[in-house]
Amino acid sequence: MKRRFVSVVIPVYNERQHVTDAIRAVEAAVAEAPSFQAELVVVDDGSSDGSAEAAASAATLPVRLVRQPNRGRFAARQAGLEAAEGDYVLFVDSRVALFSRALRFLAERLDEDPDAVWNAHCVIATNGNPYGHFWNVVTELAFSSYFSDPRTTSFDAESFDHFPKGTTCFFAPRETLHQAFAAFQTYYGDSRYSNDDTVILRWIAERGEIHISPEFACVYRPRASLVPFLRHAYHRGIVFLDGHGHRESRFFPAVVMFYPASIVVALLSLRRPLSAPVALGVVSALAAILASGNRSRRETASFVALAPIYGLAHGVGMWRGAAMAAAERARQLASQLGQ
């Protein structure tokens, strides 16, 4: 089995309590895959809680610490990619714990195809928490064609939106990632709000297959209280527009329909205030229908209870994204006219 050099890039922003677990999980996976030589590249994106120091003290692998002011996950990953020296790069978020057998599985597959790109099968940690249950249901519903039969398979540009994906835990040749990051485009002037996952991975899928397997897997720890959940939902609304406000996305019709539909609901609520709780009730009823099936009562109840709250925060985020996209477009036009 050929020995390969991988740079594990971990962006971190105020995640002291999670980043040490992420590093220990990576090191356990490296220990089970002796054909991998590994380095850690930890990018501190302006943390104020000592995340960088915690990461450095937890590591036993060679580690390089890159510091930058808070510029968002895309910029942090880009900085980590620039600092990486490995032939391959594994992006791992600070809330992710890699399965111990994951790299051993990859090592075997890379002998067959050394240029393969792999996205991790992500298991959401629920631990009886309603927010974890909510995200688990959302993920399984959005990508039901895969989660109904988890398997070692691959997807391309045509099937892209039917499979779970994300640079939450993602492995690719370093040169492939350099090309994808160089081609990156966003609606926004501030990359802190850009959808780095979807845009980068779609670019790669347009040029070749992305593989996925339950054998290359990780555990993701979601936000576990209301305020972080709402902030995350709001941010996801912003990045959702950036990632799926394009015709090639199967979610593009939903993006287009959202804006007029939300205007109608808002105007109706202003004219008839009682219609607002009715609308929230409709959302909960639809959530109950979607979550029906082979799920626990706790999982279904969490999804039904949180769906209206998430939908509201996500919708506000989408409107914020539309405003930022319009402002950036106006800035570009003004710049062109001034030339």
Can you characterise this structure?
- The protein is globular and about 65 Å long.
- Strand 2, helix 2 and strand 3 form a beta-alpha-beta unit.
- Strands 1, 2, 3, 4, 5, 6, 7, 8 and 9 form a nine-stranded mixed β-sheet that branches.
- The mean pLDDT is 94.
- The termini are far apart.
- Helices cover 53% and strands 17% of the residues.
- The longest helix has 41 residues.
- The chain is α/β, with parallel strands linked by helices.
- The protein has twelve helices and nine strands.
Write the SSE topology.
Elements: E1 4-12, H1 16-31, E2 36-45, H2 51-58, E3 63-68, H3 73-83, E4 88-92, E5 96-98, H4 102-112, E6 118-124, H5 130-142, H6 144-147, E7 153-155, E8 169-173, H7 174-182, H8 196-205, E9 210-220, H9 226-244, H10 252-271, H11 275-291, H12 297-337
Parallel strand pairs: 1-2, 1-4, 2-3, 6-9
Antiparallel strand pairs: 4-8, 5-9, 6-8, 7-9
Helix pairs in contact: 1-2, 5-12, 7-8, 8-9, 9-12, 11-12
H and E order: EHEHEHEEHEHHEEHHEHHHH
Q: Kindly state the number of beta strands.
A: 9
Distance between the termini: 57 Å
Which quaternary structure do these chains form?
Answer: single chain
Q: Which key phrases capture this entry?
A:
12 helices; 339 residues; alpha/beta; nine-stranded mixed beta sheet
What's this entry about, in short?
The protein has helices spanning 16-31, 51-58, 73-83, 102-112, 130-142, 144-147, 174-182, 196-205, 226-244, 252-271, 275-291, 297-337, and strands at 4-12, 36-45, 63-68, 88-92, 96-98, 118-124, 153-155, 169-173, 210-220. The protein is α/β, with parallel strands linked by helices. It is globular, with a radius of gyration of 21 Å.
